[in-house]
Amino acid sequence: MTKRQITQLSYEITGFAIKVHRALGAGLLESVYEKCLIHELVKNGYEVKQQINVPIIYDEMTIDADLKIDLLVNDCIIIELKAIEQILPIHEAQLLTYMKILKKPQGLLINFFTDNITKSLKPFVNEYFRTLPD
User: Fold this and answer.
1) Whose CB has fewer CB within 10 Å in the chain, the N or C terminal residue?
2) Could you tell me the pLDDT band of residue 4, with boundaries at 50, 70 and 90?
3) For the segment 12-69, what is each residue's pLDDT rounded down to a tens digit?
4) How many other C-beta atoms lie within 10 A of the C-beta of residue 94?
5) At what angle do helices 3-24 and 30-43 cross, to 10 degrees?
6) Domains contained in the chain, CATH given
7) How many CB atoms lie within 10 A of CB 64?
């Protein structure tokens, strides 16, 4: 994929998150938003994997640390969903680490406990994004 395609995909995912948030509002469980966002993405032709195990490889040893990413869209954008009062630096670090471990170029941290998704959504890119063609 190109940078432009990933950026467009990120924009479309954001639109679906806004649609889900407008329909449901804030205050529900993260799992509800996850199911609704998956429904929107799949309905619109995107490949979505959910609750994927993230293996930790350390010194040629694979560790099952029970880490899971919420969603992976079109094998390139990791989505971490939250339904909490405040996003903390640990949530950002978690997503950036998942992106690094899985070698994915973009991540979206989406918090549904908000009055405005676009104000609370945080996109992240890493070195894998920078190496993609424009």
Assistant:
1) C
2) very high
3) 999 999 999 999 999 999 999 999 999 999 999 999 999 998 889 889 998 888 889 9
4) 17
5) 130
6) 3-128 (3.40.1350)
7) 9
